[in-house]
Design a protein that fits this description.
Length: 293
């Protein structure tokens, strides 16, 4: 049962009610802006909550939000689901359509969050408190630990609508955060106008520069993974990793701690997607470690 009062909510989160009230009243002032440059060159603006607020948000996400069921099409921020799971349904399709939602988290308003929580059975008092604890200036902040789970809950009705639309058209649909993927053997791009209309009605819009139509016979990628004949990691990433292993070996088999951590992380990522692709790379890493010991 969801907490009905502020006292119930404080007990569930393991904080004093007075401290929770103070956080609710001051939440808007407890964020720090950080900017990170992405590989594409674009700058991602993060609003990072102060430690006390972040701790409460983490507990809120773990104990109250993550247990609420999300749509089967949603794979991002869902325990037990991965990018490989999101990509796998699109293997071997004639056409793969990739779409990207612009400003995904900021497009989710306080009213959407509050309405979603009320629809999940939270009392008016609890829903209002949770909304104030998890939104910033009327929007879902990118950088708060509660934003991923809340985005999946708010987007769930749209996941259902888009899944139903895709099924009627004989098309497959999955979503990973702001990435939408449709694929099929027929006129997959023909679904785009209706998808744009459904999203627009709900307050979301697509980024035109991220729309990609990928047809059979050329590389088809979903979330950076190839899906032409099976889920795999792009050849360029494996080539870069082999080059990193070679450079480390040329240094006398003594890679730095930072180099080793980066190499191991890349191999772990490849292994989570395709163990067969990771096997020779792991063997090369074993040889490198043996030479450096």
């Amino acid at each position: 049962m969801h907490p009905a009062t502020l006292c119930d909510l404080a007990a569930r989160l393991g904080v004093a009610e007075s401290d929770l009230r103070r956080l609710i009243e001051n939440a808007e002032s407890l964020y720090t802006v950080r900017r990170r440059r992405k590989v594409s060159g674009r700058v991602r603006v993060l609003h990072v909550p102060a430690e006390e607020l972040r701790t409460v948000q983490r507990r809120l996400s773990a104990h109250l939000l993550m247990g609420i069921r999300v749509a089967s099409a949603a794979h991002g921020f869902v325990r037990g689901r991965s990018i490989a799971d999101a990509a796998r349904p699109h293997v071997g399709q004639r056409c793969v359509l990739h779409l990207d939602i612009a400003d995904f988290f900021p497009s989710i308003t306080s009213a959407m969050v509050r309405g979603t929580l009320r629809g999940e059975g939270f009392s008016e008092e609890a829903a209002e408190a949770l909304t104030r604890l998890t939104t910033l200036r009327g929007r879902l902040p990118q950088g708060a630990p509660t934003s991923p789970a809340l985005s999946n809950l708010v987007f769930r009705p749209l996941d259902h609508r888009l899944s139903a639309l895709a099924k009627r058209r004989g098309i497959i649909f999955t979503r990973y955060a702001d990435d939408l993927t449709f694929s099929g053997k027929g006129d997959t791009p023909g679904i785009l106008p209706t998808v744009r209309e459904i999203l627009g009605e709900a307050g979301f819009r697509l980024r035109a520069d991220k729309t990609r139509v990928q047809r059979r016979g050329r590389a088809q990628r979903v979330l950076g993974l190839t899906v032409n004949d099976g889920v795999g990691v792009a050849r360029s990433l494996r080539r870069n990793l082999r080059a990193a292993l070679h450079r480390a070996a040329r240094q006398g088999g003594r890679p730095t701690t930072e180099q080793m951590a980066r190499i191991e992380g890349m191999i772990a990522h490849i292994g989570s997607v395709s163990p067969a692709q990771a096997a020779p790379l792991r063997a090369a890493l074993v040889r490198l470690k043996a030479e450096s010991s």
